[in-house]
Amino acid sequence: MEKKIKVFAPATVANVGPGFDIFGLALEGIGDELEVSLRDDSQIKILPIEGYEDLPTDPSLNVAGVAIQSMLDELDSQQGFEIVIKKRVMPGSGLGSSASSSAAAVYAANELLGRPFSKKELVPFAMEGEKATSGKAHADNVTPSLLGGFTLVRSYTPLDVVSIPFPAELYVAVVHPQIEVKTSDSKRILKREVALDMAISQWGNVAGLVTGLACGDFDLIGRSLEDRIVEPIRSVLIPGYEDAKQHALASGALGCSISGSGPSIFALTEGKAMAEKVAQAFDKYYTDLGIEHKVYISGINAEGAKTINKLTEKV
Amino acid sequence: MEKKIKVFAPATVANVGPGFDIFGLALEGIGDELEVSLRDDSQIKILPIEGYEDLPTDPSLNVAGVAIQSMLDELDSQQGFEIVIKKRVMPGSGLGSSASSSAAAVYAANELLGRPFSKKELVPFAMEGEKATSGKAHADNVTPSLLGGFTLVRSYTPLDVVSIPFPAELYVAVVHPQIEVKTSDSKRILKREVALDMAISQWGNVAGLVTGLACGDFDLIGRSLEDRIVEPIRSVLIPGYEDAKQHALASGALGCSISGSGPSIFALTEGKAMAEKVAQAFDKYYTDLGIEHKVYISGINAEGAKTINKLTEKV
């Protein structure tokens, strides 16, 4: 049994156009790294987080602590852990920052405990981490962060998460304009009722997107990446959103929408070269606008949470 | 060039659970047969329809006439046709009766005119037939009747129809309790607004159904065949609906819902044997209830509208 493990769980794009609260995809390269070790006592200890000293280290408030605790409760275990969080996904970016920490934490603890759960079975524990930060146990970011790929949360009661096949040449370009949009604010402005004809249009696009992904039909993926319900409302919170989207489309993106609750914007492309072109367009646009930003390009991360290395010292 | 052709266009199940107004599938064996011949003048003549003498023969009122006329308008053609309609799909059954006639009519005319259009290009003309009968140019029945298979109407503006892959072992059991539910009545009782959380649940199921179909995951198809928005409202118009559904599920159906606007009820199954078992359960239930009914079992008809035979006399 390992005593210490270093793990990675990717940043994620939730909603992905028409799939509000159901779709998510995992990014490559960007994600949180956690070093987790078994303690000889029952304490969960979270070390101060470098660069994010305002994030809580109290395990009952920190998403990683809450997520691991819910897993320990299920196992009826008193095992203690020490957790070093290297935060690489900026909180409030719309790229699943808290989900990345939650997913990494339960993945690491599960490995150290001899893997009592499958990755899919870890989703509910990671969701508890999400609940600690947003008040609701969302699964749309933690699912792709754990499982990788393009995922669907079909249902919450009972929880039913599904992996959707996707073409290998699907790439993502992301821009994170560094303004703050709190998920709770962003949720509040949504209407509780939608017109039936808008809902029908939305599930038409949901079906088109899944068909496009499963059949590798990039043109259909692009036509279906349309969100007529949430995007028009949330996009007003993101400076330059409409122009940035038009630049992405003019640069060859299949489609473009808001990542999670924003402010990050993502575009899907066929192939890496096109993603680079779109990222350049995002970069130039926000540079000209004078808004600090980061851009990323990424394939779809098929692996999800993973072990970087382990210390194989016997305990 | 043929002068006369005999064609078949299948009956269809629209909506298919969560896909209200977007999904449809084509049945085998059941459908309308049309004999269509070229006339030497510009008249569209529809002969009295055996068994359905109350259906209009005026080509501006009959769905077949309206559909062919819209095609001729697009071609700027004055060609006349004579049409014999052998109606095998009962009007008001919820199995796409008017769509079957409309699809067969435009398919036949297109063949006789040397195929100026692809099958997909025929959809808008067949939709005009639907408009003549229901007031709205629906595509969810005419699309599978023309193209066959399991289809998606992703969007109406612009029209975007898509074929969804499906597993060969997918079967359908249908019961048509012979009571009348008019589509216009059935539409009227739907609410114009839906709660956002219900809409989210619906598009989760839509995504699950497409994923299940594309991956041949029958269990996922069954879990996703849930309609929380339309079925609870429309099912009250169908005597015995809830019990019939429970009997289907107890007999091994993957899922069960209303075909189109009803009153027909369909169930999906894995394999033909299971479809036969479910059809028997439907039959027994409605026999015991004393309601006249018909049952059908069918695979998914992958071909759609087709030529039965042609008279190859030169014109």
UniProtKB/TrEMBL annotation, chains A, B:
Assigned GO CC terms: cytoplasm
Domain of life from the UniProt record: Bacteria
One annotated GO molecular function: homoserine kinase activity
Ranges where the GHMP kinase N-terminal domain occurs: 66-149
Domain GHMP kinase C-terminal: 215-286
Enzyme Commission numbers on file: 2.7.1.39
PROSITE patterns per the UniProt record, alphabetical: GHMP_KINASES_ATP
Pathway participation: Amino-acid biosynthesis; L-threonine biosynthesis; L-threonine from L-aspartate: step 4/5
Catalysed reactions, as listed in the record: L-homoserine + ATP = O-phospho-L-homoserine + ADP + H(+)
Alphabetic keyword roster: Amino-acid biosynthesis, ATP-binding, Cytoplasm, Kinase, Nucleotide-binding, Threonine biosynthesis, Transferase
InterPro entries per record: GHMP_kinase_C_dom, GHMP_kinase_C_sf, GHMP_kinase_N_dom, GHMP_knse_ATP-bd_CS, Homoserine_kinase, Ribosomal_Su5_D2-typ_SF, Ribsml_uS5_D2-typ_fold_subgr
Locations listed in the record: Cytoplasm
Gene Ontology process terms (BP): threonine biosynthetic process
Main location as per UniProt: cytoplasm
Function: Catalyzes the ATP-dependent phosphorylation of L-homoserine to L-homoserine phosphate.
HAMAP family: Homoser_kinase (MF_00384)
Similarity field: Belongs to the GHMP kinase family. Homoserine kinase subfamily.
Name of the featured protein: Homoserine kinase
Name of the encoding gene: thrB
